[in-house]
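To illustrate the input format used throughout this study, we show a single complete record. The first block contains the structure-token representation of the backbone; no residue identities are included at this stage. The design step must infer an amino acid for every position from geometry alone.
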């Protein structure tokens, strides 16, 4: 079972799915990308790419069709639908020789540099990214103000130009209807929560949090404060999960039993249903309410791989060869992908309910 809520600060790993840290920069003497015409944007994008390539070893992935579809899901990058005429996507490596730095040319700003992954060393990754970007400051002539700092196309990024975003699985808080309270607490602490409707749980209970301001603090301070708030959220999420197990075992048992039945029997599965089932499984696995062989409850790709933009490209083709579908289902893309997603999810039904949960439910 989970540790008691007092140890929740150490459980941040259980709830953080992935994080993206970005630094945006603009070049002196040029208007923002949104104010450029198509021809000028394309020409300027090529100039910026050449300037970066002259100083850093990069791989041009702009024309990688698979990555164009999956870049937002896996790495938090600009989706294909939002890429302007001058957009270029470059991949480089940071000074540690391991961390990938994504350089987006001509998105909302002239240059956006990002690192992403399931890391928790926010300050270290921020310093690594900043070192990479600062090395380009003089040759590329980033525009800045002595009073304000770096000037950006988005007012909230003026200052350090830093945006840090974390995707968190908050199934416990969502279960008890605390997402609005989360939004209120986040705003007080200079953080925003990306939710369409605070009263409605998003698919998979996945919630994105990001820093509200980039001005008035250093990048290290922003990273440190942001992580401190996430740790506070993790304390509340741990308490919520502990409360679900302790006070509502019958409800929890029903939730997991239904998940098992659907995973075993479903012949079609939408993205939203798959994400919700993965959320239920993660709740069960991280509380010890269920056990499963060959399943890593902290797999950072669980949720990403189930999404519409990723699933078929990563898993669908192989599944289609191994699991032939009825002709009419195979010919209609939406049905085909939902049927294959159900096949892909089915092995996750092989979990066992803990005796403790069953006994708690029987005694309630």
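Output of the design step:
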């Amino acid at each position: 079972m989970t540790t008691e809520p007092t140890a929740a600060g150490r459980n941040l790993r259980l709830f953080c799915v992935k994080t993206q840290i970005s630094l945006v920069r603009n070049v002196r003497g040029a208007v923002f990308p949104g104010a450029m015409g198509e021809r000028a944007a394309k020409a300027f994008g090529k100039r910026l790419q050449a300037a970066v390539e002259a100083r850093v070893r990069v791989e041009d992935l702009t024309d990688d069709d698979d990555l164009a579809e999956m870049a937002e899901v896996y790495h938090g990058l600009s989706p294909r639908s939002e890429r302007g005429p001058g957009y270029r996507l470059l991949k480089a490596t940071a000074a540690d020789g391991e961390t990938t730095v994504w350089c987006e040319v001509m998105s909302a700003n002239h240059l956006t540099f990002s690192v992403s992954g399931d890391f928790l060393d926010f300050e270290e990754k921020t310093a690594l990214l900043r070192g990479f970007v600062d090395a380009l400051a003089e040759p590329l002539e980033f525009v800045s103000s002595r009073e304000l700092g770096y000037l950006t196309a988005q007012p909230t990024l003026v200052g350090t130009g830093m945006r840090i975003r974390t995707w968190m699985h908050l199934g416990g808080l969502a279960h008890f209807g605390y997402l609005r309270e989360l939004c209120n607490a986040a705003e007080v602490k200079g953080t925003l929560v990306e939710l369409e409707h605070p009263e409605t749980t998003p698919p998979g209970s996945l919630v994105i949090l990001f820093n509200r301001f980039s001005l008035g603090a250093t990048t290290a301070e922003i990273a440190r404060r942001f992580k401190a708030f996430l740790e506070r959220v993790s304390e509340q999420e741990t308490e919520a999960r502990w409360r679900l197990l302790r006070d509502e075992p019958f409800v929890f048992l029903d939730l997991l039993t239904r998940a098992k039945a659907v995973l075993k029997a479903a012949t079609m599965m939408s993205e939203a249903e798959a994400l919700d089932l993965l959320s239920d499984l993660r709740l069960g696995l991280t509380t010890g309410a269920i056990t499963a062989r060959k399943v890593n409850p902290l797999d950072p790709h669980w949720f990403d791989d189930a999404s519409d933009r990723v699933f078929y490209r990563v898993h669908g083709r192989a599944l289609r060869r191994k699991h032939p579908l009825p002709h009419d289902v195979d010919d209609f893309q939406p049905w085909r992908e939902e049927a294959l997603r159900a096949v892909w999810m089915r092995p996750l039904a092989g979990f066992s309910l803990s005796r403790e949960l069953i006994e708690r439910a029987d005694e309630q």
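Structural context for interpreting the output: The chain has a mean pLDDT of 93. DSSP finds 15 helices and twelve strands in the chain.
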